[in-house]
Here is the input.
Amino acid sequence: MDIRPDVLLAILGMALVTYACRAGGYAILRSVRPPEFVEAMLRHLPGALFVAYVTPPLVAGSVPAWIGAVAVVGVQLATRNLGLAICAGVAAVWGAQAALW
Amino acid sequence: MTEPAETSRRVIFTRAGVWRGARASLPLWLGMVPFGIVVGVLADAKGLSFAETVLMSALVYAGAAQLLALELWADPAPVAALILAAAVVNIRMAPMGAALAPWLDRLRGLRLWGTLSTLVDHSFAMAVQEQRRGGRDAGYLLGVGLGLWVVWLVTTAVGHLAGSAIRVPPGHPLFFASVAAFVSILVGLWRGPRVDLGPWIAAGLVALAAHRAGLPVPVPLILGSFAGAALGAWIELRGRRA
Here is the structure.
């Protein structure tokens, strides 16, 4: 049940920058209009970020990872439910690994 | 921002509005429960204690950022990399508060800055819908945010307890959950090939190249994100001027 100092520091730092995004975004963007290019970049950042995150593991990943990704996309499109899509992806990887080995 | 000034002048903040928001968050719980449990299980697998896991959920309260942090996790904690990664993931929240200005501009003090601390993707989306329906009670935003915060705390705590009970070995299919979460978020973000295809390919290729070049985490992630976002912005602005 203990909290290590390095972990506490990481959590507090993450909490601080996250609050800065939540509240600072409102405080700054309502008074100052950022350059058009920055506004457009902010709109594109989430998609680019998640693609940048999933590409290396999926490219390095084996066939089960690809099957899992296809299952996630299919279930997400069909149900629009994040939790169900995650479960379907894990189940597909599990099943594919069991079937292939 | 498109709300007429007359509507925003009559914005209120009531306990009833907070309750209505909390009740409206109920259908979203179904989607959050597995996500929270996955984050809890992974936190346990990465060696975080129960107290550390719950503290992170309570203070950071951002699923994608927490999941990414756990992917980057090491012992001792790479503090600077974790903070940087959280900032990059959560910068998407910055424009949300500005978009809710018709409500937020009418709030002061703790109501304003406290409500902002509960802002997440889901509460933003629900509040925008409520605003478009003509809703004037800004308590609704806080209600949805608080309702989801409670679920997030409980589910990550349950996930951690479950994880320590079953001990997930490395390489287990469960670890695919984080990739799965981000892939399903991407499905929702997709706005069509003309807007997203080029930027997404650029983001993936740059991240992959940086990863292959052996650059340390989270550098490939940040390079890929900004390359993709910059290309997207460039295409968008060029298209508008043409």
